[in-house]
């Protein structure tokens, strides 16, 4: 299974739909990103680690919230999202396909040296948009298939009788 590490604040600052949202609600932007990633991970059958910096919050302890497809991490005081991701990538090694989403150039170079694939936040944004389009198409296709029309359940003769009754003939 593919594993994707996402530098949360880097993505929020890079994605146009989240960058504007953060101006009035950081919580809202974080929650929206989380929801987007849950849909993306379930559709693409991958595991995502959404990592937020907690290194500037004095006394902050690491908080990890695990769900089926997305694990959300708030790093501890004096630990950056980059250092958390680097350590996890090192721990996993080359046993899995790993992608790290960040636009931090130095972080991209470090991750690449450790065997992970790097992807910029905007590249990932475009990949997420493509997945959302595919999900929408599938949902529309399924809703057309499952619309459960009367004509799917009864024969033409009964439909004709019902139509005559409807018209009062």
Overview of this protein structure:
This protein has 169 residues and is α/β, with parallel strands linked by helices. The chain is 54% helix and 16% strand. A six-stranded mixed β-sheet has the order 3-4-2-1-5-6. α1 packs across α2. The longest helix has 25 residues. The chain is elongated. The N and C termini lie far apart (63 Å).
* Helix vs. strand class: alpha/beta
Counted by DSSP, the helix tally is 7
N- to C-terminal distance:
63 Å
Taken as a percent bin, the fraction of beta residues is 15-25%
Question: Which runs of at least 5 residues are low in confidence (pLDDT < 50)?
Answer: none
Number of beta strands: 6
Helix content bin: 40-55%
Rg for CA atoms = 23 Å
Tertiary shape: elongated
pLDDT averaged residue by residue = 85
Which oligomerization state do the chains in this entry correspond to? single chain
The helix-strand sequence is: EHHHEEEHEHEHH
* Strand order, sheet with most strands: 3-4-2-1-5-6
Q: Please outline the major beta sheet.
A: 6 strands, mixed
Topology:
Layout: E1 3-7, H1 8-14, H2 16-22, H3 26-44, E2 47-52, E3 63-66, E4 70-74, H4 81-92, E5 98-101, H5 105-113, E6 117-119, H6 121-145, H7 156-167
Parallel strand pairs: 1-2, 1-5, 2-4, 5-6
Antiparallel strand pairs: 3-4
